[in-house]
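debug: dumping io for the single-chain case to check the tokenizer round-trip. Nothing else runs in this session.
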Amino acid sequence: MLNRRGRGAGIDMAKLGEALSRPGLDTRNFIEEGTVCDGEDAVDFDDADDLGGPTVFVNLQPSKITVRCRLLQASAGKGEGEWTPFVEGDHVLVCFPRGTPKNGGIIVGRLNNSLDKFPANVAGQDPSGNTFAFKRQRTAFTHEIAGTYTVREANSGSFLTLDATTGNVTIKDGSNGALQLSADLFGYQSGDALYLLQLDTSGKRFMVQVGDAMFRLAAGTSNPRSSTLVTPGPFSVSANAQPAAEHVATTEAVFNILSWFFKALGTANPGPILGAVLGGAADGILASAAAAAGVGPLNPAIGAAVAGIFAAAVQKPPGVAGTGQAQPGIGCAGFLTG
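debug: decoded output
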């Protein structure tokens, strides 16, 4: 006897059972083991729409009868389903709802065998210790859901959520630290709010906070568009592997020390300025001017003049490579320090 695939079907136990059946003798067979047939057409997706899903051809054991089987799924609804590829020799358990294989069967489970051996290592752990649950698959796996999806660890309260309404992805740890990815924000905030990393694509800002230190980088079209760096301790900038050992001076500080220098110069030499007279005293005059500028205020008239220059500052032309700024200018109007 040949089946629809041209294979030798062996003895049809169902028909034999029907011939031998009699009152008191139930010849129906509701469940059998089998192996997936060989060949590329062992799995058929062509008639999936008519049969409600793909089918798998199975050789029942030991009868060698080939039956076409549907697949029992944990999830099967409108547009829902699950699938793990079948290969030749896979060991399966097949049931026959009406007790006969002539109407086809349903694969209700899979079994490990010499071909499909039980895993000896899962995530670096030995499953034979019987201490953890797992699901290990060799094939690529896609899990798709049309609603919000959450995985939560009950003891710590940590969770992962994919929000179906907003599309946001949120990961929260046991200390209430949260990582979020959305259409306009990528950010992390610690549970105590002392640490923050935030890329705001709608506001065009990038911000990092570490305790009482903060850095904010803003685009020219953001509001406010100012960028900020705040540190509770010294801030060093160095290059070429050289240690930072000197201090930054502001435009106001330079004008202040010049003002005090000329005051000290007038005090030391009230008469005409003579190089021969000042040569030996210049270092002392400059040192006293620096000390006075360190504690003395900037002359109000000079301060007003400097403030006016920066208030009316316009964009300067590009500097000449290797020679610096070719046009006159004082400081950088947009760079503030304190």
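debug: round-trip ok. The radius of gyration is 41 Å.
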